[in-house]
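Hi all, posting the design record for the shared folder.

TITLE: backbone redesign
STEP: 1 of 1
STRUCTURE INPUT:
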């Protein structure tokens, strides 16, 4: 899979201590995106899901894994392969520019615990939330797709 990088100890990309993977490649091109360097589908670096899982498992202090971007839904097959290799006690957050209704039936979406959906909209900027603009939602997948503020 192609990634822009990782953070092994984040407190702002989901609940608890997170291992964050910034997937490389995004066609949404949101104005004001905090990670525009992740847009290029040929940028970043190649890593296998197995290599990434091995690194994640070394971090015993984490509560979960967050797939961000770029947009993980442009690399669904690779992300699914990665998630299958992770310990089941880790919860999974996925940030995507797609609306939940567009991706809810994918295997990747169904493997998540939470999905933060919707394109970032700079004129709807918010602070202190697990999302960047007020049009975005936190979808609780395990609770049947319920929306949380």
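Okay, here is what came back for every position:
SEQUENCE:
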């Amino acid at each position: 899979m192609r990634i822009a990088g990782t953070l092994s100890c984040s407190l702002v990309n989901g609940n608890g201590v997170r291992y964050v993977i910034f997937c490389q490649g995004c066609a949404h091109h949101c104005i004001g995106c905090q990670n525009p360097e992740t847009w290029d589908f040929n940028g970043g670096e190649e890593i296998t899901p197995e290599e990434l899982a091995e690194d994640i498992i070394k971090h015993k202090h984490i509560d979960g894994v967050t797939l961000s971007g770029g947009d993980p839904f442009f690399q669904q097959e690779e992300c699914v392969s990665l998630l299958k290799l992770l310990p089941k006690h880790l919860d999974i957050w996925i940030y995507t520019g797609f609306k939940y209704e567009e991706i809810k039936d994918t295997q990747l979406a169904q493997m998540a615990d939470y999905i933060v959906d919707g394109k970032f909209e700079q004129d709807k900027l918010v602070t202190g939330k697990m999302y960047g603009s007020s049009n975005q939602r936190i979808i609780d997948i395990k609770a049947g797709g319920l929306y949380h503020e």
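COMMENT: The mean pLDDT is 96.
Let me know if anyone wants the other runs.
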